[in-house]
Amino acid sequence: MRIASIELPNALFVAPMAGVTDRPFRMLCKRLGAGYAVSEMVTSRRDLWDSLKTSRRADHVGEPAPIAVQIAGVDPQEMADAARHNIDRGAQIIDINMGCPAKKVCNKWAGSALMQDEVLAIAIVQAVVAACAPRGVPVTLKMRSGWCATERNALSLARAAQDSGVAMVAVHGRTREQGYGGHAEYDTVAAVKAALHIPVVANGDIATPEQAREVLRATGADALMIGRAAQGRPWIFREIAHFLATGAHLPAPATRQVQAWLTEHLHAHYALYGERTGVRSARKHIGWAVKALPGGQDFRDRMNRLDDCRSQVQAVTDYFDELADRHLLLPQAQPISAANDAHQPESDAIAA
Ligand SMILES: Cc1cc2nc3c(=O)[nH]c(=O)nc-3n(C[C@H](O)[C@H](O)[C@H](O)COP(=O)(O)O)c2cc1C
User: Fold this and answer.
1) CB of 233 shorter than 6 A to ligand 1
2) Is the Cβ atom of 232 under 6 angstroms away from ligand 1?
3) Model confidence over 218-267: pLDDT tens digits?
4) What pLDDT band is residue 343 in, cutting at 50, 70 and 90?
5) Quick one: 143 and 275 in the same domain?
6) Counting atoms of ligand 1 from 1, which one is nearest the CA of 338?
7) 24 plus 113 within the same structural domain
8) How far is the CA of 102 from the centre of ligand 1 (A)?
9) How does DSSP assign 70-117, residue by residue?
10) Looking at the annotation, which residues are catalytic?
């Protein structure tokens, strides 16, 4: 799988998720089998480039290549400037966000709202491609299947994007109107794949190896993008890779191994965010990791009341020590369907 001339280790992608796919999480997913990960969206607004939030989102220290940054905004020139700015800071691929359903991205109607205005959407794509091409940086586009059930315009937008020089398109099989409700459909993804000669990535509700195989079959897509099912379960990428390669399931990971991954993740998280913010934002990752485990809900409630790194790590250690005494392999490691899961984007995460 390639994006322009950039060869990827495999065709399993981490979906960009604001408030989730920061550098520590992306690096963990890449370590555990993901071939590619895009940053959380970074605002195109120049006045916010130096904000703490945007700088953290644009932090790629130590991350394995390729470094891919998603930008969001509504003004073509501003988006082109944002692309150049992020290339200067290490981006090797620029992704344009036309997939996020939040009402307001950067205080304007950006993200998937842009799909409603194809002229503006393509003006943005052309401006960003013009900014990136001289630097040899490919531009990719993430979109939904359309604006609403009667306006599934992913195909025409994808064609126009390809004609404008986009190197890859990812399609989440829901309309903007659907938010995260209902189920993803893959017919639109299949139609986009059939019409384009650039790589097409299928996204939406892929939570098990079997679903991954089925979505590949139904769409013919070049790659799969997985979001919510990787929350608390970043080893899903190697499970899917193994299943696609062999037709067999990997055993559940050892409880001690999961403990080690989570503990390392926490330390990387605190290093990026500092104690106060780090402890708070780590709660969701810990919560996702334990929610399907014995006593996980009670533990989560107790853990959410802890306010410092030391107590949080100690609580995780105590919980997993006890779990590992009873279970060599992670118990109840059944994936929870992404479609039925309540992991909606947090309003805080969406704000630029
Ligand atoms: C918490 C959260 C934050 C998200 N943030 C972004 C984002 O910043 N940019 C984007 O293009 N999509 C964003 N999405 C959408 C995901 O990339 C993906 O398209 C969607 O979750 C469907 O894939 P899934 O069913 O595998 O989760 C977000 C989704 C979630 C759940």
Assistant:
1) no
2) no
3) 999 999 999 999 999 999 999 999 999 999 999 999 999 999 999 999 99
4) very low
5) no
6) 25
7) yes
8) 10
9) EEE-S-HHHHHHHHHHHHHTT-SEEEEEE----S-BTTBS-GGGGGG-
10) 100
Residue 148 shares a structural domain with residue 198: yes
pLDDT, tens only, 164-209 = 999 999 999 999 888 889 999 999 999 999 999 999 999 999 999 9
The pair of three-digit structure tokens given for residue 146, joined into one six-digit string:
């359309």
Give the mutation target among 142, 205, 228, 343 for probing the ligand 1 site: most ligand atoms within 8 A of CB. Answer: 228
Nearest ligand 1 atom, CA 40:
8
Both tokens assigned to 61: 């220290």
Instruction: Report whether 14 contacts 230 (CB < 8 A).
Output: yes
Contact assessment for residue 76 and residue 60, using Cβ atoms and an 8 Å cutoff: no
Per-residue pLDDT band for 271 (boundaries 50, 70, 90) equals very high
Domain that holds residue 226: 2-251
Number of domains in the chain: 2
Tracing tokens 């139609």 back to the chain, one arrives at: 191
CA torsion 250-21-332-337 (nearest 10°) is -100
Sign for the pseudo-dihedral over CA of 268, 235, 95, 16:
negative
If DSSP codes are grouped into helix, strand and coil, which group holds residue 45? coil
